[in-house]
Amino acid sequence: MKAFMAEMNENWNERQRGLKEKEKREENVALYSVENMKKDYRLKKQRLHVELWLKEIEKLEDAKLADSDISVGDDIQRLIDSCSEMERWTLWVAVKISCDVCYSAVQSSG
């Protein structure tokens, strides 16, 4: 009887191992299926296109910055020239207050 039970247990264990190995093989097959490979390829292709577009956008922005001969001082001068007298006075006050605040902050920290 013991021999029969031992043989049954051994057969049962072998069948369980066989089922587990079969499941693993099926998982590996599903991992490398044609559909999954198509999806992976499509995603990689999309990522590549996004990266290329981002590089192209960066190049365009760099070209815009390099082509512009206007410095920051020229921008400020154009802003002042386009303002009315009242706006100029308001702008001057705002700049003065900002400078005073920065100066006092430097004085208090030093």
From TrEMBL:
- InterPro entries attached to this UniProt entry: GCD1_mitochondrial (IPR052851)
Source domain of life: Eukaryota
What is the protein name stated in its UniProt record?
A: Uncharacterized protein
Organism of provenance: Vigna angularis var. angularis
